[in-house]
Amino acid sequence: MNTVDQEDAAYIENLMKRFKLVDVRTEYQGLIKDAESSNMSYLDFLKKLLEIEAEGKKCRKQEKLRTNAGFDSIKRLEDIDYSFNPSLDYDKITELGKLGFIETHENVIIIGPPGVGKSMIATGIGLNACNAGYKVLFINAKDLVDQLYEKMQDGLLREALMKLQKIQLLIIDELSYLKMDKEKESLFFQIIRQRYEKGSLIITTNLPMGRWDEIFTGKLAATAILDRLVHHCHVISITGESYRVKGKKN
Predict the structure, then answer these.
(1) Sequence-distant (≥ 6) Cβ neighbours of residue 22 within 8 angstroms
(2) Digit-coded pLDDT (tens) for 148-165
(3) How far apart are CA 108 and CA 200, in angstroms?
(4) Which of 2, 4, 168, 250 has its CA 20 to 30 A from that of 156?
C-alpha cells in the first residue's frame, strides 16, 4: 500500500494551504488509503475529495452566518412543544420554516403575550435561514433603533442602512417595550420602507396591530408603517400560558 512521503506531503500541504482546501487537507491521506483498499476509481476519488471540501465549506459558512446573526439563544423549530399550547399553528410555522417567504420578500409578524414562544419561533426560522445560506440579523427593537440613532448622530446613518439592506432576513424582536419619538420613529420607518418588497422581516410583539399607536407617535404613523409591513405578510397570533410560567410550576 502506497504512502505519501514527506517531500510530497509538504508539497501537497503547501498547495492546499494556498488554495484554502481546509477539509481536503485534513482528509486526503485517509481517503487515499480507503481508495487503495476498495479499488476506488480516479473519478470516484476526485468526486469524494470535492464532496468533502464542499460539505466542509458549507458547514463553516452556516456556522459563520449563525454567529453573525446574533441570536439570543439557539432554539430550533423542532424544539417547539406544540402540545403545551394548542394556539400554535404547526402547519403555518412549519411552512414558514421552509423559507419560501424570504424568496418572495414577504414579512412575518408574530403576536402574543410574554413567554408564549414568539422569539423561539423567530429564532427557529432564522436558524433555518442561516443553514440555507441567507444572511440573518436578530436584534431587539429598542437596540436597533438606539443603534441607528447613534449612527445618525455620528453622521453614519447612510452606511448603517446600507449594511442592513444586505441582510436578507431581519428579525426585530420585542417591538413592544418602547415609545418612539419623531426622530426614532422616522428611523424605524426608513428600515420598513427600505425593505419593502426587497427584503424580509420578522417582527415579534406583545401588542395587537390595532395598538401599535402606543409604540409610535400616533395612529397615522402606525398606519403608515403597518401599511407596508402587512402588504405581503404572514401573521401568527399566539394566546395561552407562558412557557416560562410553566417551567416554574414544574
Answers:
(1) 16, 53, 56, 57, 60
(2) 999 999 999 999 999 999
(3) 8
(4) 168
